[in-house]
Amino acid sequence: MRAYVMELLGTFLLTFFIAFSGEPTVVGLVLMALIYLGIHISGAHYNPAVTTAALVRGKIDAQRGAIYMALQLAGASVAFWVHNLVTGTMWGGDLTPAQTSVAFGMEVLLTMVLCLVILTVAMGSRYRGGMVHGLVIGFTFVALVGMGGVMNPAISLGALVEGTLIGVPVMQDMQSLLSYVVAPVVAGVASAYLYQYLNPDDR
């Protein structure tokens, strides 16, 4: 149960700071802190793409993975609800209509990089027991967000849920849904297989 609470709380706080700040450095530092807070409790996923990568790698089972993803979506949705309640506005972020396949490709690429880093420093055997994971993941996230990546289906779907509830259009076209929801999950699967190929002895 503690792991589930941590995933809900961690995703809520991450999304909260994304909604209220949006500054890559701020969000990256918050993610760094949240990883140190929760990695020993839940693995500090806070992202369905990361949970997908962990599932494919066999780090968690399907039931726990499904619960994680549901709680991540709930945490993100509540954070956007709080943001709307406080500011009276809906967070739009980078979820602008994606008219080409470039957005899909960029989300796959950036999310793959993020997941590969997490699989290496937080889930892999090479750095197991070390304290470097939060720092590395946090600064990687800063760089990738700076390039325009969302890389988290919970955040995208959370914005969609809140937007639907208050009547604000968010990700209304199919290309945007593919780019900001499907692409990161595809990246999670691909990163797990690529990691295994590059690290065949890491179980």
Account of the 3D structure:
The chain has helices spanning 2-20, 24-38, 48-56, 62-87, 101-123, 133-146, 153-166, 174-198. It has 203 residues and is mostly helical. It has a single domain (2-198), classed as Glycerol uptake facilitator protein, CATH 1.20.1080. It starts with a helix and ends in a 5-residue tail after the last helix.
Number of strands: 0
**Total of helices:** 8
Specify the helix fraction band. over 70%
Mean of all residue-level pLDDT scores: 89
User: What is the element string, with H for helices and E for strands?
Assistant: HHHHHHHH
Q: Major sheet: size, sense and barrel closure?
A: none
What structural class results from the helix and strand content?
A: mainly alpha
Q: What's the domain count?
A: 1
Distance between the ends: 26 Å
What's the CATH architecture?
A: Up-down Bundle
Q: Regarding CATH, which class? A: Mainly Alpha
Residue fraction in strands: under 5%
Radius of gyration: 16 Å
CATH topology: Glycerol uptake facilitator protein
CATH H level, superfamily name = Glycerol uptake facilitator protein
Contiguous low-pLDDT stretches (5 residues minimum) are none
Outline:
With 203 residues, the protein is an all-alpha fold. Helix content is 71%, strand content 0%. It has helices at residues 2-20, 24-38, 48-56, 62-87, 101-123, 133-146, 153-166, 174-198.
Could you name the key traits of this structure?
203 residues, mainly alpha, Glycerol uptake facilitator protein, 8 helices
